[in-house]
TrEMBL record:
<feature type="compositionally biased region" description="Low complexity">
    <location>
        <begin position="19"/>
        <end position="30"/>
    </location>
</feature>
<comment type="function">
    <text>Binds to DNA and alters its conformation. May be involved in regulation of gene expression, nucleoid organization and DNA protection.</text>
</comment>
<comment type="subunit">
    <text>Homodimer.</text>
</comment>
<feature type="compositionally biased region" description="Basic residues">
    <location>
        <begin position="1"/>
        <end position="12"/>
    </location>
</feature>
<keyword id="KW-0238">DNA-binding</keyword>
<comment type="similarity">
    <text>Belongs to the YbaB/EbfC family.</text>
</comment>
<dbReference type="GO" id="GO:0043590">
    <property type="term" value="C:bacterial nucleoid"/>
</dbReference>
<dbReference type="Pfam" id="PF02575">
    <property type="entry name" value="YbaB_DNA_bd"/>
</dbReference>
<feature type="region of interest" description="Disordered">
    <location>
        <begin position="1"/>
        <end position="34"/>
    </location>
</feature>
<dbReference type="InterPro" id="IPR036894">
    <property type="entry name" value="YbaB-like_sf"/>
</dbReference>
<dbReference type="GO" id="GO:0005829">
    <property type="term" value="C:cytosol"/>
</dbReference>
<keyword id="KW-0963">Cytoplasm</keyword>
<dbReference type="InterPro" id="IPR004401">
    <property type="entry name" value="YbaB/EbfC"/>
</dbReference>
<protein>
    <recommendedName>
        <fullName>Nucleoid-associated protein H8876_05680</fullName>
    </recommendedName>
</protein>
<dbReference type="GO" id="GO:0003677">
    <property type="term" value="F:DNA binding"/>
</dbReference>
Length: 117
């Protein structure tokens, strides 16, 4: 045993306290991310197509919450046009929700200097 060392005590590994602090910070960050994701899940984004003929609302979970179709665009002889209007509005609402989600998450992770976040 080296001089000045008491029996049963091991020297702390260099940086062990720092590692524990980093783990606590990561756990706290994970809790904040989970809370933020729950908030995002409750958000909604709405988009229209065909000059307002079709309106689609999606949730933060990227699920369709509502579709509104003006009766004048329902043409039994042109179902393809209505399908296209629904697809355009849905894709735009999903794109908006993705942008909202990314913006909210980037606020949380800004300044961390962690690659990929």
């Amino acid at each position: 045993m080296g001089k000045g060392m008491k029996a049963g005590k091991r020297p702390k590994a260099p940086g062990a306290g720092n590692m524990q602090k980093q783990m606590q910070q990561m756990q706290q960050m994970q809790r904040k991310m989970d809370e933020l994701q729950a908030e995002i899940n409750e958000m909604e984004a709405t988009a229209t197509s065909g000059g307002g003929a079709v309106t689609v609302t999606v949730s933060g979970k990227k699920e369709i919450k509502d579709i509104q179709i003006k009766p004048e665009v329902i043409d039994p002889d042109d179902a393809e046009m209505l399908q296209d209007l629904i697809m355009v509005a849905t894709n735009e609402a999903l794109r908006q929700m993705e942008e909202i989600s990314q913006n909210e998450m980037s606020k949380l992770t800004a300044g961390l200097g962690i690659p990929g976040l």
